[in-house]
Write a structure and sequence with these properties.
CATH topology of chain A: Creatine Kinase, Chain A, domain 2
Number of helices of chain B: 4
Shape of chain B: elongated
Helix content of chain A: 25-40%
Shape of chain A: globular
Distance between the termini of chain A: 23 Å
Radius of gyration of chain B: 19 Å
Oligomer: heterodimer
Radius of gyration of chain A: 24 Å
Strand content of chain A: 15-25%
Helix content of chain B: 55-70%
Largest sheet of chain B: none
Strand content of chain B: under 5%
Distance between the termini of chain B: 37 Å
Number of helices of chain A: 19
Structural class of chain B: mainly alpha
CATH class of chain A: Alpha Beta
Strand order of the largest sheet of chain A: 5-6-7-3-9-14
CATH architecture of chain A: 2-Layer Sandwich
């Protein structure tokens, strides 16, 4: 493991690398299916996103279909020459997964939802750009999929987390933390868990998308801040599709076999709490403050005065009150609003920032803190008009209330209002956020050029760069890509007498295999086997690198 | 009273006394400015409201529960 960690007496803080796996709402208007049209919509959408490995649609297709294929366009033919000749077992939560040779991310179908996975980034700002870059890819796929629909049918894609009919789907984040911190939060120190849950619950005023109505048996409400709040029912657990926990305990490192006995070894912190976001501020606030708070936890800087007595109850109170007046009890007997609690967490972060704890761990932490502070100050000043371009739930609420003022016959119960709620996040031309974005109303925290870059390129400072370049080289050299995962790729390579052999390259270190580490190897190796040899040697050498930064 | 009016109500300011002085005029300016900016979404809203059958659209959004 390449150690670029910050160290103090409390231990190590790993750079807060971040990934994401985000499910979309997808359905077809004009098509009737019992149980909905998610299957048809998600398959049509994912079919339009190119990636590797290609999976034959069935065992029969791959082995017994002798009919000559129709001529393919050049690009399609190159991709298909890299497809494996075997099929995998069917898993309804991982169908048709393909990794993108454009960005290093992936896309697949999870329980009839198209799911978009972002490549690993280190900076919250790069996460924001990579997310909007991925939405650009999804929007292109949607346009293509709709071209092939029957007359009267149209695929819709919503970047939200609830269908309004009692079903929720996630927008998950993943952060790199140390194994020690992972164990302490979940299994050793209960106040760490409560601290994190209290932060998350109060943070919905920054990251919520907003939703009309309530679900999952919760009390009626006209409008609430969070899409997901109604669906959280327990404090901690590994499950994600039922009895959803505020803090998720799924333990998949996706880092190969790195340092299992080392407390500073990597673990993957899986967060299922947040809403999907479109507004740049909301999107950034899903990631940046979490990077900061996870760093505090990793270093043992936990202020027990900021712990809610019942985070689940507080989440309902906070989400169902867009006026931000509701107070929830803390374990010390105080009662705080979500805004007050966020101000307290911000002060805690600022206090530690002054000690240098985020140096080398959270890129642009000063910018994140400044934006966080500016946003909370605007809430304190009730300056919502300045927040609407930055935060989804405020913008959506303003748009809906404006619609109701213009059409006095509408009320919160009107189906038209729920339609606006849904169409806020539509990827198609009918999307309300898209309209505000096109008009220049929404705040831009990253440039359109940066978003365009991440729609066709990987991050340069994580292993996503090497993953992407390997896939591109395989396509170019027509090498078969057998399997791809986040931390390894297996190729089927022709050896002597065309006898096939399989080679797996491990890209276990998420902070290794960057452009700076690997580009020269790609430049120097024209033969594919030589390239893999070179990357393997890089992997061996990389494990000895320890450029630890001492702080405090 | 709309949610946003309640949030903007100086009587209920989160900032307390500091924000009372002169805030009414300023808030009205913000609202006026906001109205013109929010107009950018009016076409999209009108298209949503003009949709032929909102209830049918809402039924079609049905999803399987996800993660």
């Amino acid at each position: 493991m390449t150690k670029r960690s910050a160290q103090n007496a409390s231990g190590f803080a790993l750079p807060k690398l971040c990934g994401a796996d985000i499910e979309l709402g997808n359905f077809i208007v004009g098509m009737e299916r019992i149980g909905g049209t998610g299957y048809d919509a998600s398959h049509a959408l994912i079919a339009e996103i190119k990636g590797l490995p290609l999976r034959p649609s069935s065992y029969f297709d791959s082995y017994w279909s002798a009919a000559p294929a129709a001529p393919k366009a050049d690009e399609d033919a190159r991709y298909e020459s890299c497809g494996p000749k075997t099929n995998s077992l069917y898993n309804p939560q991982d169908v048709s997964r393909r990794f993108l040779a454009s960005t290093g991310g992936s896309a697949y179908i999870d329980l009839n939802h198209a799911e978009l996975c972002l490549p690993e980034v280190v900076s919250a700002y790069d996460h924001l750009a990579a997310w909007h870059g991925m939405l650009t890819i999804a929007r292109t796929a949607l346009d293509s999929a709709n071209e092939d629909r029957a007359a009267g049918e149209k695929i819709h894609v919503l970047v939200n987390n609830s269908d309004g009919l009692g079903h929720s789907y996630g927008s998950h984040l993943n952060f790199l933390i140390s194994r020690r911190a992972f164990d302490e939060i979940l299994f050793r120190k209960a106040h760490y868990l409560q601290f994190l849950a209290s932060f998350q619950v109060s943070s919905i005023l920054l990251s919520g998308q907003g939703k009309v109505g309530s679900e999952n048996g919760r009390p009626d409400t006209p409008y609430q801040i969070s899409q997901r709040a109604d669906f959280f029912e327990t404090l901690q657990g590994a499950q994600t599709t039922y009895n959803r926990p505020l803090v998720n305990a799924r333990d998949e490192t996706l880092c190969g076999q790195l340092g299992n006995d080392d407390p500073s070894a990597p673990a993957r912190w899986h967060v299922i709490f947040f809403d999907s976001a479109l507004a740049h501020g909301s999107c950034l606030f899903r990631v940046g403050p979490m990077q900061l708070v996870l760093t505090l936890l990793e270093l043992g800087h936990v202020n027990s005065k900021l712990i809610l007595d019942d985070p689940l109850h507080a989440l309902q109170l906070f989400s169902h009150d867009p006026t931000l007046k509701s107070r929830a009890a803390l374990i010390n007997g105080q009662h705080m609003t979500a805004l007050e609690l966020q101000c307290a967490f911000l002060n805690e972060v600022k206090r530690h920032a002054a000690q240098g704890v985020f140096e080398g761990v959270v890129p642009r932490f000063e910018d994140i803190i400044a934006l966080w502070e500016d946003t909370l100050n605007k809430f304190v000043d009730n300056d919502l008009m300045s927040l609407a371009p930055r935060l989804d739930w405020v913008l959506k609420l303003m748009a809906i209330e404006r619609a109701m003022e213009q059409s006095p016959n509408l009320s919160w119960d009107s189906p038209q209002i729920k339609v606006i709620d849904h169409l806020y996040s539509s990827l198609d031309d009918d999307g309300l956020f898209r309209a505000y974005e096109a008009s220049g109303f929404t705040e831009q925290l990253v440039t359109p050029e940066r978003i365009a870059h991440f729609s066709t390129n990987p991050p340069s400072d994580t292993r996503a760069w090497t993953r992407t370049m390997l896939l591109r080289r395989a396509i170019e050299d027509r090498v078969e890509v057998n399997t791809v995962d986040w931390d390894r790729i297996t190729f089927r390579i022709k050896g002597r007498h065309n006898w096939p052999s399989y080679r797996t390259i491990a890209i276990a270190d998420p902070l290794g295999f960057t452009q700076a580490h690997a580009e020269s190897i790609f430049d120097e190796c024209s033969d594919f086997n030589d390239l893999l040899d070179g990357l393997e040697s890089l992997s061996v050498g990389d494990s000895t690198i320890h450029d630890t930064v001492a702080i405090n | 009273m709309r949610f946003l009016q309640r949030l903007n109500d100086p009587q209920q300011s989160h900032a307390g006394a500091d924000s009372d002085s002169g805030s009414g005029e300023r808030l009205q300016q913000i609202r006026d400015q906001g109205d013109s900016l929010l107009a950018a979404g009016d076409d999209a809203i009108q298209r949503a409201l003009a949709g032929s059958n909102s209830e049918a659209f809402l039924r079609s959004t049905r999803q399987l529960g996800g993660q």
